[in-house]
Structures are given as structure tokens and as C-alpha cells.
Amino acid sequence: MSEIELIPERLLRHATTLFAQHGFDATSVQDIVDAANVTKGAFYYYFASKDDLLYHIHERVVSYETAHAEAILAQGMPPKETLRALIVDGIESIGLFREEVTVSLREMHRLQPDYFDKIKGIRSRYQIFFETVIRQGQETGVFRRDISARLAVLALLGMSNWMYTWYRPNESMTSHDIGETFATLLLTGLEA
């Protein structure tokens, strides 16, 4: 991107910050356009509504995570290495998109039904990537068969998703370090 930030990006950035700080309901379109230093006309040129903007914030995160997961899976590594890479990448994305993740997790229930269904579908697909890798590891004897792949993934995502409440950039442990630690915790529990 050039030095001049495009208006839709500026609107998304400021809306994300405001939604993360004050919540979706407490943030008005006027608050967003004031923060972005644009007019309401500019807002409505790029976004149909505040709900549309909320969807784009969600979509940005899940599209990024899904694209990265697909790239990791395409490498064809063994299940253990693939799962570690998926976990580390997922945690790094939470660190990279901390405000977006905050908005996504706190405000998902605010999405309009059609937007909610789209995001839920993408999130389910992302979850299935992890489950598939664990099942492959179970089939090849790398991972224990007595642990539900779905339950292991739900535990991982639950533990990871709460990171938005406590992770702060620039502390001594990076999001990569946290990802490696989470991966070790899960992989140790899954190892056959």
C-alpha cells in the first residue's frame, strides 16, 4: 500500500479500534467517520452499513487464517509438523490481528444472519483443517486414537481465542513463542 492510506482501509482500521475499545453497539457511524476523518458519504460509498463494516472485519481475519492454513497443508509435511505449523500460524495471526480478533470474538453475535452464516462456514472449514491433520496422525499412529480430534481442536481454539484478553505486543514473549508453547502442550497430549 502507498503512503496514502485508502479510505476503505482507513475506515476499517478506525472502526476496528473503536469496536474493540467501546463495542459495536456503542460506536456510531459518526464516531467512525470522525475518527477516519472522512464524510458519511465516503463511508456509505464503500460500506452499505455499520453491519457491513463489521462483516469485513471478521472476513479479513478468517480469510487470512484460512489462506495461511491452506498454504501450510499444501506443503505436505507429516501430521505432527503440519499441526505445529497450523497452531503457530494461528497464534501469530491472533497477535497480528489482535484488535480484529477482539472484535470478531466479542461481536460475532452482532453479525446479520447472512453474514453470520458466511463467517461461521469459513470458521468451520478452518477448524476442519486441524481435525483432518489430527485424524491423519491418528491413522498413521503418530497421535493417540483415544482422544477425539474434534475435542482436541475445540480445546486448542478455546485456549487460543482467549489470547486476545491477555496478550500484549512487545512483551518478552512473542506470539510466535506463545504458538510454539501451545503447540507443544497440544502435541505432547496427542502423541501416541
Description:
This protein is mainly alpha-helical. 75% of the residues lie in helices and 0% in strands. The chain has 10 helices and no strands. The protein has helices spanning 7-22, 29-36, 40-46, 50-74, 79-96, 98-107, 113-139, 149-161, 163-166, 175-190. Helix 7 (113-139) packs across helix 8. The N and C termini lie far apart (47 Å).
Oligomer: single chain
| Number of discrete helical segments | 10
- In round numbers, the mean pLDDT is 93
Report the β-strand fraction as a percent range: under 5%
DSSP E strands, number: 0
Low-confidence stretches: none
Label this structure with key terms:
single chain; 192 residues; mainly alpha; elongated
Topology, pairings included?
Layout: H1 7-22, H2 29-36, H3 40-46, H4 50-74, H5 79-96, H6 98-107, H7 113-139, H8 149-161, H9 163-166, H10 175-190
Helix pairs in contact: 1-2, 1-4, 1-6, 4-5, 4-6, 4-7, 5-7, 5-10, 7-8
